[in-house]
Amino acid sequence: MFVTTRATILTQISLSFHGRMQQVFFTNGNAALTASDYDRAINLYLVVINLEYTSNVVFALCSEAKLSKMIWEDAILDAQKVIRLNPLSHIGYQLTHTVLHGTKCYDGAIHTFTIILSKLTKTPKAQIQDLHQQYVCPFQAEDAIQKAVWNELKYALLCLLNTSMGLLCN
Predict the structure, then answer these.
(1) Widest pairwise Cα distance in the chain
(2) Cut 0.85: pTM above it
(3) 83-88: long-range contacts at Cβ-Cβ below 8 A with a sequence spacing of 24 or more?
(4) Which string of b and e fits 158-170 if b means at least 16 CB within 10 Å?
(5) CB-side exposure of 51: number of CA atoms within 13 Å?
(6) What pLDDT, in 10s, does the model give residues 41-99?
(7) What does the pLDDT look like over 145-165, one tens digit per residue?
(8) Cα separation, 133 vs 120, whole angstroms
């Protein structure tokens, strides 16, 4: 009985210490991210992750720090982990969208943006639904752009350009 009790106590002490260390590194990582010390923030978040703390919040913050350093590949991997850990949240998709936009993969960014909009409409929280009001659906944006272009073309003078000679023809 004494061995079991002693082992239990040692396990509890170890878990308590482990949890406190995770919290210290996490808090210091947040401070570094706030201070724009991205390298330090990334290193501290990686320590938290290596201490087996798999929270979507840690991966999201680590991805945010990597985005600030334009470490695209690592940032998208962390964003995908956020999505895996919390598929109902829009945050992982928002990080993915930022990476795809930053790497000029616009088709993927638009697709991810539509997923973000669907996540925002399905959420029960009113303040997150309010975020949805800030954005326009890609189809509505495309339609508005098309109308603006047609209005400009309707009143534009038609000119013919000789591309081989570089001359404007009447």
Answers:
(1) 102
(2) no
(3) 85/54, 85/55, 85/56, 85/59, 86/56, 88/119, 88/122, 88/123
(4) eeeeeeeeeeeee
(5) 22
(6) 999 999 888 887 778 999 999 999 999 999 999 999 999 999 999 888 889 999 999 99
(7) 778 778 777 777 777 777 777
(8) 9
